[in-house]
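User: Please predict structures.

Assistant: First:
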Amino acid sequence: MNTLIEGHVIASYGRHYQVEIDQQILDCVTRGKQSNVTCGDWVKLKLTSPNQGVIESIIPRASLLYRSVEHRSKLIAANVDLAIVVVSPVPSYYDLLVNRCLIAAEAAGIDSLICMNKSDLGDIADKVYAQLSPYQALGHNVIRVSAKHDISQLTPHLQGKTSVLVGQSGMGKSSLINALLPEAAIATRDISSALDSGKHTTTSATLYHLNADSHIIDSPGMQAFGLNHIRAAELDQLFAEFRPYIGHCKYNNCRHTHEPNCAVLTAHQAGKISDIRLAAYQEILRGLA
């Protein structure tokens, strides 16, 4: 009973976790009130009964995606290779949130792509896809799928990786899981058009096995993505299109907001940095400052 066993956290519910060990699922808790365990973690635990255990330690992570506000962090997923930012024409998505997700992934050393769901909605879907062109210009993969009809553009990106779906509520993350794994049978809900936002369906992060080498994590929908763990002075380095111009401003401590002879602002005026990305950078910077 005192032997430490290694397991994989496949679901997190507050301070309660489901841990997979040799295809057996254990209900586990952590010691004490505080916990920094998250879905995707590999952990060491002690059995307390044939179906229950106590997590004693976390095996060092290859990556960690999380969001943060002052004095508090919200872990999203660990040991992931790809963050899939899900957007859709309905309800409206927020460019700032998309950028916050992309920046968090960049800071964590995790690849990212943007997946526009609900591509079957006709003209409005075409319009939204066109609005995502600035991200394509940066080299981000931007794909369009329909969880109801066709997810073929998504599946090749998932092979051999652990991926996590992130984004606002109502974008259809759980519907994508259902399309990939019909047996998952996740409850999905209608969109509240009056509020133009999704009803929260997924309340916990859950990992699903697509095959022996490919896994996907569904995370709860979010309306905000805090980045307090990123230093203001390092934010510009997380915008790939800024990097060629950093160090060429008149002032060494230039923040690229209003300063004279700012190489980043000059590049923006020349059309080399999009309005969306500069606005996102400046908005995030204000929050960090």
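Second:
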Amino acid sequence: MASGARLRLLSYNIHGLRDDRAALTAVLRDAEPDVAILQEAPRRLRWRTRTAQLAQRTGLVYAAGGAPSLGNVILTSMRVRVTGSSCLTFPLTPGRHLRGAVHACCAVAGGGFLVAGSHLSTDPAERPGQARLLHRALAEAAAGSGLPVLLGADLNEPPGAEVWRLLGDGLVDAGLVDAGSADPARETRPAASTLLAANTFPAADPTQRLDGVLVDPRVVVTRYQVVDSPEARLASDHLPVLVEVELPAS
């Protein structure tokens, strides 16, 4: 059973900062995450400056990602220490966008963890290959570090589809476990207060659950919420996923 540090994690496709930035700042600040995994963050011209400005406005600090990971960025609070990071570039399919992923080894008082973020293709023929590469990279990083994985991603397809199954090999969908356990073998039903399987896209009228957080089975999920507020509906075309977990003791 986990008995390590507690952590607040937010996974959020921020739509390239193309929407209401004041609303986006409010959403990120109100969530008070220890770790924010962002998709469609700045990746081209002046990406470092724009990412630093976003971090400053939201009271967070840059940890990893950006242009090297094709717009996947990890921001953290000051209580999180980053001990290493790596970026992954997926093979380019002609006529499609180049995409990638980022992961970082982190530590907090009472435990360590490996946090990762990615934004998979909108092309159903391309997504599974990207998911396999990401799964392999995370498995290797986790094996080398011994740390539990926390993955936040825009998977661009609903749960039950192929990429969720591929990435779910060894990880658990935080939105489908009951509050208090990430053990897939546990048969108790989810707590009624937990917003399970809530849709995340499009933000103005969500009809699809494209965004998720997958966690190591050793991690205890104590809260899962899709943040749906007036600000969140203005800040991006996706709604963010907020998860609270308890890490296994180191």
